[in-house]
Design brief:
Layout lengths: L1 H5 L6 H10 L5 H17 L8 H10 L3 H20 L12 E5 L5 E5 L1
Helix pairs in contact: 3-4
Length: 113
């Protein structure tokens, strides 16, 4: 509702409720981008205050929430790593605690032992 009001879009409360239910997994920024895209299209078509609720629902279907994409990407990365595709950048015997030394000029050197 806040994002709709930002663009001076007025819809019936039933449509606002439907949009709220369909967009519950989206961030505020994602909803704002969808509303902005719909408002921009309406303006380009010569009807700046006539944003279609059907278009808003279509855009929600076309643009899934980012967390779903991130979750799928992370799961694919985990499967790849578990399949043996990932290797340590350094040998496992060198993965010990670093030793930090500093000289009188406040420069620090880190050595791995």
């Amino acid at each position: 509702k806040v994002q709709l009001e930002h663009y001076l879009i007025q819809l019936e409360s039933e449509l606002i409720q439907l949009l709220a239910e369909r967009s519950s997994a989206y961030t505020g920024a994602e909803i704002r981008n969808i509303v902005k895209e719909s408002a921009t299209e309406a303006f380009a078509n010569g009807h700046p205050r006539l944003v279609s609720s059907d278009r808003l629902l279509t855009l929600l279907d076309l643009k899934p929430p980012q967390f779903r994409h991130d979750t799928e990407e992370l799961e694919a990365l985990r499967k790849w790593a578990a399949s043996g595709g990932a290797e340590f950048a350094a040998p496992s015997d060198s993965l010990n605690t670093p030793q930090v030394t500093s000289d009188s000029n406040s420069l620090r050197e880190v050595s791995w032992y």
